[in-house]
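QA checklist item 7 of 12: single-chain prediction sanity check.
[x] sequence parsed
[x] length recorded as 72
[x] structure emitted
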Amino acid sequence: WSRGIGGALHDLALVRLREATVQEARLWTLAENHRGRAFYEKRGWSLTGRTRPVPFPPHPIDVEYARPTLPS
């Protein structure tokens, strides 16, 4: 935790998506993953309003995030 590895991997993923001409990235994470959600929100991700149940018990809820691959 808090060593910059996750942020570096996140940024590299966005670079690779830009290189592949992807304009908007999307991801799913558990609604109860508060630490992960804060990580994404700090990096410019926004909730899309879409949710889905995870297909394995106990079927927690996933929430979808999106963000442009280019910095705003």
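[x] summary fact logged: The chain is about 35% helix and 30% strand.
[ ] second reviewer sign-off
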